[in-house]
Design a protein that fits this description.
heterodimer; A: 300 residues; MetI-like fold; globular; B: 497 residues; mainly alpha; three-stranded antiparallel β-sheet; two-stranded antiparallel ribbon; 22 helices; 7 strands; flat
Chain lengths: 300, 497
């Protein structure tokens, strides 16, 4: 098919605009990356900003924040442990529930689904949830970072939808071979559901890694050793003045103020540490997550 | 279906006759046994756990009465009780109606237990006819509970000898609600379930086992807060008094919401910001998706998409950090502006100027989600029939006409669907982004419902009104979603469920 001249220009314009948007998505991240390696001197010489990778890169900022005296290593540990445990639990609970609800002819299925729909459409709101968590004894406990997210009606519906799409013949064939329910699930259904597991797993990992608010809400400053990395970064960037505990404020402040590197560099180094795991896992899951989005959109 | 019957038939033939009888037996019994189990459990709980508790907050004293104690009081006629400890020594009177009501409840449960036992076990009948009595007993439990915790007519005498409403002197056990629920569920279970279905229930035991943990999690983390919110919105909740000890206030909070101009302002802010957010969440991804679809060098589409999706995976903290690096007073943009203007002190106040906060919030939202938002549009675009474009080209249509007459109509149903659905969240702005970007200087402009609830509820511990506002928000959200879903089904024949 031969393109007319106008059409060619249109396609080129489209390309240029898309290119600009893509660059504007990528460049800020690179900028943060560059800054985190720069020395204070180079930034100052450059007039306070840095558009390209520093000519004399330094790891001082990273050394400073990953120093064993600081909170950062501990916070990374909390983030990793929390993300791994809660993703694992979430996937287990939601796949099993989705599997149970995908069984044909399960009595009471319609009622159960309706109850799940209620939880999607109507939330308990911030204050009641806060009081419930406090009542359950989750305040200042590591459990608050894990248990409340263990079940999501939305993801159960996605799993159910997917399992229902698996041909009945496969299950029947397996049952003829004398496979029981547990084996059917672990040997046949699960291996077939890799894409949806990967997609939901990725979203859960991202959600858990990025979550700072739960810790901010339910874990007070006396128990700051339970805070994940994101909560610390939030306080460093935004609200140092809202810290009541002066020791903690001083500690957070000391991390970002150094002599040889700009405090912006240490902050950016911290930010970069926080996004690095996402950047690492993202390419492995990329082919799956669009599938997850479709599944979620087709029937929620 | 037919093959299944044959298999069943074969099993019957081969199975031993005794085993077969046990199977038949247990099928009829299964419902009876479930009901009996809960009835007996209820009797035991009623008798041996605390039914009401005498509380005296000033002396931090509480004396629980279980069923045995109440029966003892009723039959001995000794309503005046002596209490003595190392620090306190006094006499108090148990209100007469408490043991009497308890006896009525207990007798009702015992009667139904015996009836079920007789008909179910000895006469081997399907005990369906007990459905309504069970529901009635559940309702009586519930009414008694509500009376005990709200009625001002029921009086009791406290330690000082003052006559007060019952609920001020006694705490009623949540056991009553639990039992009310159990009996109502049992009743429904009797009414709706056929013996035939019970057979199927047994076949699916493994599935039910799998649903135990999700159900518990759903009840604890979803339904319990929803229930709390519905109750708290009509109560003056105080932490010390607990949810049942706090007094009811009727519609007071809602009257306050609609008469307080500050709260109305907050609702207005939310509405304004959310409408902007919906537009910003719809249009830029739509345009970007069309550009991606139409652009030259289609080989680059994949890599572009990969990059465009990245910001979606970052938390608002990281987005704020990036914006801080660019837009703070010493950030990159201002440094460059200083060079251009030539004045070393010059800067544009992006992050701490009330005028700029709304655009900054919208732009940060676009930056985070623009790539991600294209996924659904691109999926819709890939469903457009490519032969249409070829035919249009043959007819001499230009790029704009193809866009207008083929591309847009092709995805219009998705666009309408997404738009209608997003109208459901017209009061929600999310708390995280606002909390990060709204520093004290700019807060008034973006003081949304979520932030207000957070500040009043968590900050000032005004639980009553803040949960009422939350309730209002959830309710409007629910109504809007239901309406929009209906509208979406009507117009583009697509719905959420």
């Amino acid at each position: 098919m031969k393109l007319s001249k106008g059409e060619k220009t249109y396609k080129i314009i489209c390309f240029v605009v898309t290119l600009i948007i893509t660059i504007s998505c990528l460049y800020p991240l690179l900028y943060c990356f560059f800054l985190s390696f720069a020395t204070a001197k180079e930034i100052a010489d450059n007039g306070g900003y840095l558009l390209w990778f520093p000519t004399k890169p330094t790891l001082l900022a990273y050394r400073k924040i990953l120093n064993s005296d600081t909170f950062v290593l501990g916070a990374i540990g909390v983030s990793i442990v929390r993300t791994l445990i809660s993703t694992e639990l979430h996937l287990t609970v939601c796949t099993l529930a989705g599997y149970a609800l995908s069984r044909r002819g399960l009595p009471g299925k319609a009622i159960y689904m309706r109850f799940m729909l209620v939880t999607i459409l109507f939330g308990g709101g911030l204050i009641p949830s806060y009081l419930v968590m406090t009542e359950l004894g989750f305040y200042n406990s590591f459990l608050v970072l894990i248990l409340p997210g263990i079940f999501s009606a939305y993801n159960v519906l996605i799993f159910k939808q997917f399992f229902e799409g698996i041909p009945l013949e496969m299950e029947e064939a397996a049952q003829v071979d004398g496979v029981n329910d547990i084996q059917l699930f672990s040997r046949i259904i699960l291996p077939m559901s890799k894409p949806v597991l990967a997609a939901i797993g990725l979203f859960t990992v991202v959600g858990n890694w990025n979550d700072w608010f739960t810790a901010f809400l339910y874990i007070d400053q006396e128990h700051s050793n339970l805070w994940p990395l994101q909560t610390y970064i939030m306080l460093i960037f935004n609200n140092l003045n809202m810290l009541i505990n002066p020791e903690l404020a001083a500690m957070l402040d000391s991390v970002t103020t150094t002599e040889s590197v700009n405090d912006l560099s240490t902050r950016m180094a911290l930010t970069f540490v926080a996004i690095l795991p996402m950047l690492i896992i993202y390419p492995f899951f990329q082919k799956y997550f669009t599938k997850g989005v479709y599944l979620g959109a087709v029937k929620g | 279906m037919e093959s299944e019957e044959i298999v069943l038939h074969d099993k019957r033939k081969n199975g031993s006759s005794i085993g077969q009888k046990i199977l038949e037996f247990s099928n009829i019994w299964s419902k009876t046994i479930v009901v009996l189990f809960f009835c007996v459990l209820s009797i035991v709980l009623l008798l041996f756990t605390s039914f009401v508790t005498f509380t005296e907050p000033r002396a931090s004293l509480s004396i629980g009465f279980n069923g045995m104690a109440l029966l003892g009081i009723l039959f001995s006629g000794q309503y005046e009780l002596h209490y003595s400890s190392s620090t306190l020594d006094f006499v108090f009177t148990v209100p007469q109606f408490v043991p009497i009501i308890f006896l009525v409840l207990l007798l009702a449960v015992v009667c139904i237990t015996l009836l079920v036992l007789w008909f179910g076990i000895f006469k081997q009948k399907d005990i369906k006819q007990f459905g309504w009595p069970l529901i009635a007993i559940g309702c009586i439990f519930f009414v008694v509970f509500i009376l005990f915790i709200t009625s001002k007519g029921l009086r009791a005498v406290d330690r000082q000898g003052d006559e007060l409403p019952f609920f001020n002197v006694y705490d009623t056990s949540m056991l009553l609600v639990l039992m009310a629920l159990v009996f109502i569920v049992l009743g429904l279970f009797q009414l709706l379930l056929k013996v035939e279905t019970m057979r199927r229930v047994k076949k699916f035991w493994f599935s039910y086992l799998l649903l135990v943990i999700p159900t518990v999690a759903m009840l604890l983390f979803n339904f319990y807060p929803i229930f709390m919110q519905c109750v708290m919105s009509f109560k003056d909740y105080k932490l010390a008094d607990g949810i049942w000890g706090s007094p009811w206030v009727g519609m007071q909070w809602f009257d306050q919401i609609f008469s307080d101009s500050a709260i109305l302002q907050v609702i207005g802010n939310s509405l304004y910001l959310a409408i902007l957010r919906i537009l910003a969440g719809m249009l830029p991804p739509l345009i970007l998706a069309i550009f991606l679809y139409d652009m030259a060098f289609q080989k680059l589409k994949g890599p572009f998409q990969t990059i465009l999706y990245i910001p979606h995976f970052f938390s608002w903290v990281v987005i704020y950090a990036v914006f801080y690096a660019f837009f703070s007073n010493s950030g990159a943009i201002n440094q460059i502006l200083r060079l251009i203007v030539g004045d070393n002190e010059y800067y544009v106040d992006f992050l701490t100027n009330p005028k700029n906060i709304v655009p900054i919030i919208i732009i940060s939202g676009i930056w985070k989600e623009v790539g991600w938002g294209t996924i659904l549009y691109l999926a819709a675009l890939s469903g457009v029939d490519p032969t249409l474009y070829e035919a249009a080209s043959l007819d001499g249509a230009g790029a704009m006409r193809k866009l207008w007459h083929i591309t847009l109509p092709g995805i219009s149903s998705v666009v309408v669907f997404l738009f209608i659905l997003s109208m459901g969240s017209v009061l929600n702005n999310g708390l995280e982004q606002i909390m990060l970007f709204a520093n004290t200087v700019v807060r008034d402009k973006v003081y949304t419902i979520e932030l207000w609830v957070y500040n009043q509820g968590i900050g000032k511990m005004e639980y009553g009104i803040s949960s009422a506002v939350g309730f209002f928000q959830s309710l409007i959200g629910l109504i809007l979603v239901l309406f929009c879903n209906w509208l979406s089904r009507k117009t583009v024949d697509r719905g959420l469920w």
